[in-house]
Amino acid sequence: MGGHYGLVVLVGVALLLTTGQCDTSCGGRDGQPGVAGTPGRNGWHGVKGEKGQPAAVADGPVDVGVLLRLKGEMGSRGLQGAMGPKGYRGDLGAAGLPGQPGGPGAEGKIIGDGQHSFQQARSAFSVIRTDNSFPRFSQTVTYDRQAVVNKPGDFNTATGYFTCRVPGVYYFSFHSMAKVNMCLRIASEALVNKLGFCDYNRNNDQVLSGGVVLQLSAGQRVWLESFKDQQQDTDQRDTRDKLIIFNGFLLF
After folding, report:
1. Residue 140 is assigned to a structural domain of this protein
2. Predicted structure pTM score
């Protein structure tokens, strides 16, 4: 029994020695390749390289294509240059298309009938009084001479009245010359207060003027009249030269 046990021990030792030698000198068969792993993340950007050496300038003409290939980065925008001279005037362009017709205008006003409407749209007069007698106070001045201008006949020299036919804005004025004190005023049915003018100068000829702008309606009258202010009784009996001019015309 003891001899059999010793044999077993020797066999075991021999196996261990044999196994140890294979671990150091014997190679087993390669295994199967493993499954590919997932792709890794992108790496960091590399460091910017150093600036290169400037290109050598070649003698003679330079190939434009080479320059374009060697074009560098765009520089910053330069300052605006000075304005150049004015260019030549271009040719006249083609005529445009006709525009749309305008809307109807405002309704017109009737100022007369037929061939008389143009005459009624105008009105002007200028009359002269050369009578040496003193004009009576608070009475309309009449005129002994034919009217210098009376178009189209709105002024009556016999009565001394101007009668408005065309409504509008008128201008009236008068001028007088005498050797005595005289007061005249423009009167009208369009005026609330009459406009009076006087001149007192005993050493020289009395020169008197006045004027007014009036807005008249059709049928309203305008006239000139004398009035009493500071005149003496002897002034009314004066028979020396006297002159009165009365004018008026339509403005618009």
Report:
1. yes
2. 0.51
198 neighbors 181 (Cβ within 8 angstroms): yes
Task: Give a yes or no: residue 174 inside a domain.
Answer: yes
Tokens of 88: 């030549």
Closest to 132 in 3D by CA, of 172, 173, 186, 182:
182
Instruction: Give the number of C-alpha atoms closer than 13 A to the C-alpha of residue 95, restricted to the C-beta side.
Output: 3
- CATH number of the domain encompassing residue 159: 2.60.120.40
- Among residues 240, 224, 160, 154, the alpha carbon closest in space to that of 188 is found at 224
- Condensed to tens digits (0 to 9), the pLDDT of residues 108-119 reads 665 544 444 555
Does 34 reside within a domain?
Answer: no
Residue 68, SS3 per DSSP? helix
Give the start-end residues of each E strand in the chain: 124-129, 149-151, 155-156, 161-163, 168-178, 182-188, 195-199, 206-216, 221-226, 243-250
Per the structure, the count of domains in the chain is 1
105 part of a folded domain:
no
Task: Provide the domain limits for residue 180.
Answer: 120-250
157 contacts: CB under 8 Å, gap ≥ 6 = 127, 142, 143, 145, 146, 147, 150
More reliable by pLDDT, 231 or 160: 160
